[in-house]
């Protein structure tokens, strides 16, 4: 029986997805965490914890280094909230182009017998523009960015995409009508709207700053529903103050953005739909079950993707440092134990490597001893022995 601990309100569809091999919230010494926004930085991770799955695309709330040292694989659920974010970004572009927030505020604060006359007289101040024919720069065309780009194109916008890390899978998702820019400056140069959809890391923090804003048209509208900090708020406010930008729409509040008519802030609701929460919970549950039962890895933050069909009776998985002779040490130990390797796969992600070893014959008394000895190899974070339930 595997033990699952949940944090936050996890959609019931995800919890129901677990099979009868899993117990939910019966102990703190869990095999897996299924989380959303809880901040795990301030709490220790139990030695039993093999996997953390976050129902969402970000992982700033997970202590990656601590998890790695604990031998815990960390996963996200990319794409589970992509449609929700796409719809909100498109809605914000419509709202920006038609001055909807200012118009609604005007209507909410005007009443009286002559409201119709005053409305007819005053409404011209809210005249806007149509999105069709305007240019949108999409920075990052992964799960969300590709959907935004395609939706904007279908609305008749001219879409320019920039993503230096564009994968072949992502390229297939993008309409052939969308132009590809060779640089960030080229992408934003003539854009009426700029929207960012990149992960937050050292390279993308402050991605849109003073220099980038200076390349844009003075009536540009910037949209950030990716992560706080990707757009430099100080530079953004300065551009607005000096009429170098028209507006800023973001899901991430900050003191410097308060009380401005040219800034609209929403309370981190980009992925907050019933459908997105259900998708993330189900995908998270599937990720946990796949990793615990087969050891296969997809969409991990701290492990490389490694998926190998589980066709033998037993499987050993090892999470270890990416240093020379690790595979040699592991193979030598197995040979000394008289264990024949049916198949071995290894991959690395930066400083961490992951090894899958399939074996068909294993004496029962070897189980505990083998895992203990493999785990005792210097630089091994965690060793596991899996049994193929389909062959029992």
UniProtKB/TrEMBL annotation:
It catalyses: (2R)-3-phosphoglycerate + NAD(+) = 3-phosphooxypyruvate + NADH + H(+); (R)-2-hydroxyglutarate + NAD(+) = 2-oxoglutarate + NADH + H(+). Pathway: Amino-acid biosynthesis; L-serine biosynthesis; L-serine from 3-phospho-D-glycerate: step 1/3. Residues 315-388 form the ACT domain. It is an enzyme of class 1 (oxidoreductase). GO terms for molecular function: NAD binding; phosphoglycerate dehydrogenase activity. This is D-3-phosphoglycerate dehydrogenase. Its EC number is 1.1.1.399, 1.1.1.95. Keywords: NAD, Oxidoreductase. Belongs to the D-isomer specific 2-hydroxyacid dehydrogenase family. It comes from Secundilactobacillus kimchicus JCM 15530. SUPFAM superfamilies: ACT-like, Formate/glycerate dehydrogenase catalytic domain-like, NAD(P)-binding Rossmann-fold domains. Catalyzes the reversible oxidation of 3-phospho-D-glycerate to 3-phosphonooxypyruvate, the first step of the phosphorylated L-serine biosynthesis pathway. Also catalyzes the reversible oxidation of 2-hydroxyglutarate to 2-oxoglutarate. It comes from the Bacteria. InterPro entries: ACT-like_dom_sf, ACT_dom, D-isomer_2_OHA_DH_cat_dom, D-isomer_DH_CS1, D-isomer_DH_NAD-bd, NAD(P)-bd_dom_sf.
């Amino acid at each position: 029986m595997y033990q699952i601990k949940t944090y936050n309100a996890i959609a019931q569809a995800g919890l129901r997805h677990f099979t009868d091999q899993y117990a939910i919230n019966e102990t703190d010494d869990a095999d897996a965490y299924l989380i959303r926004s809880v901040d795990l930085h301030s709490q220790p991770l139990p030695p039993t914890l093999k996997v953390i799955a976050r129902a969402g695309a970000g992982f700033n709330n997970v202590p990656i280094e601590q998890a790695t040292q604990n031998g815990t694989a960390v996963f996200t659920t990319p794409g589970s909230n992509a449609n929700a974010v796409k719809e909100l970004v498109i809605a914000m572009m419509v709202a920006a182009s038609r001055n909807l927030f200012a118009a609604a505020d005007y209507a909410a604060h005007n009443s009286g017998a002559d409201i119709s006359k005053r409305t007819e007289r005053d409404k011209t101040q809210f005249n806007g523009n149509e999105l069709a024919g305007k240019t949108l720069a999409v920075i990052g065309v992964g799960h969300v960015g590709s959907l935004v780009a395609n939706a904007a194109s279908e609305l008749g916008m001219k879409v320019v995409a920039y993503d230096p890390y564009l994968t072949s899978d992502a390229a297939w998702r993008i309409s052939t009508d969308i132009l590809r820019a060779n640089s960030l400056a080229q992408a934003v140069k003539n854009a009426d709207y700029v929207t960012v959809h990149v992960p937050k890391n050292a390279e993308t923090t402050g991605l849109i700053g003073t220099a980038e804003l200076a390349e844009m048209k003075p009536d540009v509208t910037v949209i950030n529903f990716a992560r706080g900090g990707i757009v430099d708020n100080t530079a953004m406010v300065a551009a607005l103050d000096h009429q170098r930008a028209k507006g800023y729409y973001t899901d991430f509040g900050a003191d410097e953005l308060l009380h401005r008519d040219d800034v609209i802030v929403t309370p981190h609701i980009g992925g907050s739909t019933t459908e997105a929460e259900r998708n993330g919970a189900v995908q998270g549950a599937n990720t946990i079950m796949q990793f615990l039962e087969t050891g296969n890895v997809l969409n991990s933050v701290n492990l490389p993707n490694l998926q190998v069909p589980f066709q033998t009776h037993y499987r050993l998985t090892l999470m270890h440092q990416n240093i020379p002779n690790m595979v040699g040490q592991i193979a030598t130990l197995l040979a000394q134990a008289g264990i024949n390797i049916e198949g071995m796969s290894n991959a690395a992600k930066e400083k961490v490597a992951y090894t899958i070893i399939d074996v068909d014959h294993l004496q029962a008394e070897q189980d505990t001893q083998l895992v203990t000895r493999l785990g005792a190899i210097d630089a091994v974070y965690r060793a596991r022995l899996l049994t193929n339930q389909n062959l029992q």
